[in-house]
């Protein structure tokens, strides 16, 4: 029979850490004015950390009077004290620790190869410090991409993609690591206008280019050397911009002033696209960036074709419209006031509803939303549709309007949207009403009776003609 006495062992090791005079290692943690000297035992450090096992057996350690002298300027004293307590007694006090301290502890445990501690701190931060992480995404992202694990990296990317607008326009964005920026620009999950990505890239490039920065961001005062310097900084990022997703007006106002930083062949083909609407010949057409959190980019192309009156499910390239996310239930709240504030006077829009079956229902309102107090609107081009999932191009269905005078009902007091009393979302409950009706063709066989489905997500995409 084995008897285990961990509590006594832990107490004795704690005494060794705090009161022992037989130490043989002195470690100075921190730098500048924030430093502290710690005394430790090489045998314990070597047994608990592969990092120290290698470090103490190498020839580059410094000894003074038979004492191992070790410096860790990149680890703050408060973090190193937690590290030592974990190494000696397996205890950790995380109460009232700042986000910066937790990030430092995560980074130090990864560097010191304390795998158990690293995994614990990473999971703990994602659970207890998610609010702080989202408020400091640039800081955390820059650190996360230097870690051995991808869990925090993936969390940062997902958080950025969930709200890219505020991230890219934040004051700290210009200090983002270039490796992370490259991954973001490659990512098709960024639900944001391409012109906003371009504006953010320019802001980042100016700040990252020696001689420019906030003190020299007025391009009217730049010389050719300034443009060449910025071109060098952004050379690897320019090919990641989906210029065909930028409108003519945006191109003229925001891109054209920086034409000298764009390779000549790319710029000439972009101009030809805007003047003649011909697709570039030598530029690689990147996958469309995701305009929706509910459906994948290939279904955006289907919607564009439907808006143009083409009901085929052939995935032909359609660049006639830009789709802007203007309302998202999970982000803006499920109430009529939030919906009204986001959608009023936005022009034509596509409404998408994902229900608990993962099926997606939606409608295209070609007349827009103007906060009318309870009236039927007329449209000959509106339609409703359904997708079995977020990338369905096989079983999808579309129903075009056949009663123009009663295809859209608007009442800002209680209704989010109502397509011919066939697809309704209102403020009463959290369900989506699907009714038997014949305002839109092709859906009677689906909606055989009234049926309320639980809503997972709603979004409204503004449709802008390019």
TrEMBL record:
Coiled coil: none
Domain BTB: 23-96
Top-level taxonomic group: Eukaryota
PROSITE patterns cross-referenced by the UniProt entry: BTB, TLDC
Pfam families associated with the record: BTB, TLD
SUPFAM superfamilies in alphabetical order: POZ domain (SSF54695)
TLDc domain span: 293-464
UniProt protein name: 9567_t:CDS:1
Lineage, broadest ranks: Eukaryota, Fungi, Fungi incertae sedis, Mucoromycota, Glomeromycotina
